[in-house]
Amino acid sequence: LSSALLPLQILGNVSEFQRVVNVLQDGVDFDIDVNASVFETNIRVVGGLLSAHLLSKKAGIEVEVGWPCSGPLLRMAEEAARKLLPAFQTPTGMPYGTVNLLHGVNPGETPVTCTAGIGTFIVEFATLSHLTGDPVFEDVARKALKALWKNRSDIGLVGNHIDVITAKWVAQDAGIGAGVDSYFEYLVKGAILLQDEELMSMFLEYNKAIKNYTKFDDWYLWVQMYKGTVSMPVFQSLEAYWPGLQSLIGDVDTAMRTFLNYYTVWKQFGGLPEFYNIPQGYTVDKREGYPLRPELIESAMYLYRATRDPTLLELGRDAVESIEKISKVDCGFATIKDLRDHRLDNRMESFFLAETVKYLYLLFDPDNFIHNDRSVFDVVITPYGECVLNAGGYVFNTEAHPIDPAALHCCRKQKEEQWEVEDLMREFYSLKKSKKFTFKRASNRREGEGAKEPEDASSERGGEKRNSRKHLHSLLSCPSQSFNSRLAVLGQVFLDNT
């Protein structure tokens, strides 16, 4: 699913996309006696199905009445996600790492799960809750995020592995790489997707601790989570997503300096080794391979949208030439077993097609619909009224499946948000020049709940008049989304106080 479906959407192969969708509708059965990774099933299967569902109309598929609030791919995503819910039934709310799709959690299942395996659900599960109206998915994802936040160390860091029953840290190495990476990624992307101030404030607090204890000369090392002492002075290739994530919060200068450090490693070997010893300037024993990972190219894409720095295109060119030269074989592109002599392994990871090639394509395709600057959009009719889609601002899950944030506002049973947006549009076009209005934030509201009252937003609620001119730009930069964290034209997200 990850490697076959989404690249077809990006590249526009409508007939092949339809064929894959037909196969999925005819033959997917999640009620099977097999153990599955909760993390991988979510990012690949649930995320892939949700993204395919939301992009199916643009891909040329004839959608059913009620789309995007209904559809076969959405129903399959919901079915797959429900198979994962038993993993979250722990005293802490943090999920087990593995679940049996037929029987639930096995009695002998280990309670030790990596941090990323706990904190990488909010993008897919919140999208599913908003589209289906069932809050259970977003609720369990939020509970897991808050459990990790609650159990951070006194100096503000989280470790690598934790016991989901006792909340005791089993591996206490703190960093931004393997075992932790997508937890931080989903705090930022969840905040953007849901307009959630709490998630963003969590990440910003982590960001301070990461800078204080793990950052050295624009490199990020591994440290002991309670003491902050260096435990591993290495760079992992999985950490290369970090400059892209920093660009999303507007810290472009820091992101570029770190990116250039990583790029020097690429130029040294023609790829990123899994581990790189920073003091020695060379690979780590038994970690010399390069499985064609996407993270550095992902960061290049985000940073290029923010800066238009040609250095980022040079990385893309180097990546294409390197992959073609040292990795291409008759039946695909092989993992590089050892970057020192470019020996190949007999395998090709699915993320090479699902992520690496996709990010390369988008880096060099500035006019792709994914990069839409909100100058065009589609209006669809849903059971709850008109809805704006495909206006840009897509949020990629950690397997590079794009989610349209606007879609989360299409299937709400409460109409008030729709009317608020329409009122803003009328005022914008001066149809009601004398109208004074208030705007209620809906960032943390889920079905059946009222919106939370952020501490710093008290002056903007309670019926007080607001400066409509100031907020029209941020709220209407994408016609369907009430951004508290504004999506700027160059691909950066800025907080109101930035």
TrEMBL record:
Question: Where does the UniProt annotation locate this protein?
Answer: Endoplasmic reticulum
Q: What class of enzyme is it?
A: hydrolase
Q: Which domain of life is it from?
A: Eukaryota
Might you report a single GO cellular component term?
membrane
Q: Which InterPro entries match?
A: 6hp_glycosidase-like_sf, EDEM1/2/3, Glyco_hydro_47, Seven-hairpin_glycosidases
Chain positions covered by the region annotation Disordered: 442-471
Q: Name one GO biological process term.
A: positive regulation of retrograde protein transport, ER to cytosol
Give any Pfam family that matches: Glyco_hydro_47
Query: Might you give the EC number(s) for this enzyme?
Result: 3.2.1.-
Residues involved in Ca(2+) binding: 398
Instruction: Name one molecular function that GO assigns to this entry.
Output: calcium ion binding
Q: What does this protein do?
A: Involved in the endoplasmic reticulum-associated degradation (ERAD) pathway that targets misfolded glycoproteins for degradation in an N-glycan-dependent manner. May initiate ERAD by promoting the first mannose trimming step of ERAD substrates, from Man9GlcNAc2 to Man8GlcNAc2. Seems to recognize and bind to exposed hydrophobic regions in target proteins.
Protein's UniProt name: alpha-1,2-Mannosidase
Species of provenance: Ceuthmochares aereus
